Amino acid sequence: MTVPLLDQGAASIAAAVREARVAAVEVFGAAHGRLLESHAGPDGIHAVLSTAEPPTVAPTSGPLAGVPVAIKDNIATLTLPTSCGSRILEHWVSPYEATAARKLREAGASLIGKTNMDEFAMGSSTENSAYGPSRNPHDRTRAPGGSSGGSAAAVAAGIAPIALGSETGGSVRQPAAFCGVVGVKPTYGRVSRFGLVAFASSLDGIGVFGRTVDDAALATEIVSGHDPHDATSAAVEPAAMRIGPGTLDGLVIGVPREYFPDSLDPSVRERCDRAREALRAQGATLRDVSLPHTDLAIPVYYIIAPAECSANLARFDGVRYGMRIEGDGIRAMYEATRAAGFGAEVTRRILLGTYVLSAGYYDAYYRKAQQVRELIRSDFDAVFASGVQALFTPTTPTPAFALGAISDPYEMYLSDIFTVTANLAGVPAMSVPIGRVGGLPVGGQILARHFDETTMFRVAYALEEALGAEAAR
Amino acid sequence: MTGAWEMVVGLEVHVQLRTRSKAFCGCSATFGDAPNQNTCPVCLALPGALPVLNARAVELAARAALALGCDVHRRSVFARKNYFYPDLPKGYQISQAEQPLATGGRVPLPDGSTVGITRIHMEEDAGKSIHDRFPGQTAIDLNRAGVPLIEIVGEPEIRSSAQAGAYLRALREILLFGEVSDVSMEEGSFRVDANVSARRRGETAFRPRTEIKNLNSFSNVEHALELEFARHVATYEADGAIAQQTMLFDALRQEVRPARSKEGSHDYRYFPEPDLPPLVLAADWLAAQRAALGELPAARRARFVGALGVSAHEAEILTAEPAIAEYFDAVAAAGGDGKAAANWILGEVLAARNAAGGAAAGLVVAPARLAALIALVRTGAVSSTAAKAIFQTMLTDGAEPKAIAERDGLLQVGDDGALEAWIAEVWAEHPDEARRYAAGEAKLQGVLVGFVMKKSKGRADPKKVNQLLATRAGS
Amino acid sequence: MAVTPDDVRHVAGLARLGIPEDALARYVEQLNGILSHMEVLQRVKGEAEATPPDAGMALREDRVAPVPLAIARERFAPRMRDGFFLVPRLATHEDAGEEP
Lengths: 473, 475, 100
What we know:
Helix content of chain C: 25-40%
Shape of chain C: flat
Strand order of the largest sheet of chain C: 1-2
Number of strands of chain B: 17
Radius of gyration of chain C: 23 Å
Strand content of chain C: 5-15%
Shape of chain B: elongated
Oligomer: heterotrimer
Largest sheet of chain B: 10 strands, mixed
Largest sheet of chain C: 2 strands, antiparallel
Largest interface: A-C, 66 and 52 residues
Strand content of chain B: 15-25%
């Protein structure tokens, strides 16, 4: 039985297109077929919000020649809408292109669709999308995770081997874990944010989904690099990511105890234990370490992220673009537009963020949160200074939860408990599949030092190699 | 009545920096283009667009702060100032709050007093709202949105409207000198808000202040301060109270009135701008900026008067523009005669520049050439009349003044034989004047010298002609 | 520091979010619920060592080179006339002032 080309990995597809063994349009057609199939019926996965036309000028060169890619709906593309899962930007087509989207296009990739997401990336299930939730391809009654749930589901459903997502507190890694794919959050500053619609600027970053570690490494290498249009983009040397499987001899991997609380789902713990064994078998030394301020990460995150979002979303005012609801006077126009345009979670976070920044509360909330964020950052500095080169943790406390299962906002926030720390500290992190529980994927998280994606991928390749088909299927 | 009262004023001045492009994007910062022509994803605040700071804006802001004697901080932090207004595209203004670019500083005024500077911070301008163009609508033009500004916050140390005017003129001079800004109140590149209060002489605490906006000329500032101060005093004398509020100056009616709506409690929710890392200035870069700044206008004026022998009034004009001051310095240095250099520049040189179209026409004669021309006059090689003719030629001819004088026959003739020949001709042609002069009518000497000068086409050395005529009369 | 309905009205006003009165109670309850989890931060003492001075931000050369717009402003603006964006009339600069 031969594996369909679409499932052979991005590098193989690109090679076949470059060598003219297959036309990019054919690959696109196959991806499009998968898209239609997976989206059919009342329990269609609803991973994409808009679907591209086949490429008119089919690419024949580039490292992603003819590779179908899906892009999260908060990353500006010139050809499809960039709605951010929000009514306020319904039908909005960006007049300029995000740097990461341009890099994929210039590498020869074909955009297949823009993917569903929690409105403005605020959520962990895609249930906050104004256009309805996506479904987990492994169990369509369950959430694909979020906020980049559409991208994760598109890759898991085999529509595209690669997708772009975005991270603010785990929005790539958490859905990657839920959907059984690889999800990468590079170091803050590694990938340009130019054209990524801002949620919380100091935490946001573009991330990458891949069906395999190799696909994810290839795509992350392509979208990385300094961008003069983003002042927070780092002028650093590129890191080798697509390094292939190898041993972990000499590598010290820390296992932070705070990420294995007593409350951890036993089946998730069991999968993590097996992954630790696999890492050891590959030559790594595992060391028990502590990141003592971990339990403060969610409170810190839910002050800083809403504060920044309250300012970032002020531009949606009906004056220059997007939705506008007329009212009696400017103030009524603003309020009507923003009331109609934003959903409940976005409204909640703007209120929260405005509150913590407002006179009399700034010091108690925002300033305090920034101080504690420094403590969380210094936890990572200390542990990496102690000789540990990478960390291994579960990506999420549980496998995918059922759609509609979580209604309390704070309970939903807790599903990011193991992922927000990397965003607060700015370090690179990724999720790789480490097995299944009752048919649902479980993700293991690898974190590394700032700009040391090379070590992170070294661990990821080894883990994927060691766990093999057991994790992926 | 106001004699028992003291005016207390602090000025906040917004200065547009003279850059080609905006503060955070590559749009032109030009004034007067078609509406919204100079807008891009960044200054339209399109979803996903990000700011990147203009290096030249930093340089000009630092230069202004250094020229005003401020401490420029090695590290400053941009912040978001949040408020909704349709000409503020992002819903926040990028400014600086807790960690501004510079603090401290002091501006010396001609009367010997000084006014302290609290802080200078960088920020971006908002767009323009036009309320009277379309009925029922406000029209928004974002060409100005994102143009780089500095805000210079002065200490409340100003005690009279005249001092306020002197402070603003001193600021303007320093900013022009540093080529920081065009400093045009008409075009909005220099905008003044005034905080005014009154207190009884001898009181040490401040009373409530009002803020006057919309001040669009220096004289309006002074006038508005007088009006508002008088209102405060009259209110206090009538046992009234002054409420802290914003006032608008109406230039047409020459009156200060409260801004239409009541001033609420502004809550700008400042927080550090996460899209911009801290601005870090290297110590050697700052030192180089300080060195490049050179001599400030006040110091330069003092030197012109003290070392180069020009009058205070002449020094004022010579330092009004950096280009003129530098030109004067170069001419004086090349020729060693400050007084003569000043006379030439304030006379022929500026007249020629004005005739050619003003400041844009430049100062075309190289300083060394002008110094050489001055030297020709001093040594008597050319007359001052001839020198003026030579100067006119030099405006279009690159030759040395001496070469022009030789070519055009303008070298002064001091040779007795040639002069005697011209005098003889004049004697013959004007027998009446000659006879009366010889008979002792001394006042005719000037007339006769004039005839000789005319005949010689200005080349005759007038001193020698005088001597020869005197000799002839005496013989 | 319990959030009151007036607090929510106040921040909704600052954020220009039109919140119907009948939705207010829900937001008050949710904000209090979320903020109760933040109280833990107040107990944290000590600060991280100040991070060493960073290199600071990269600056842009002062060159006129705007990112081009692939779609004309007129095509995406809700209301535009003669090149201006239009909004309901504001009589003076103070009309959209911060607070009612």
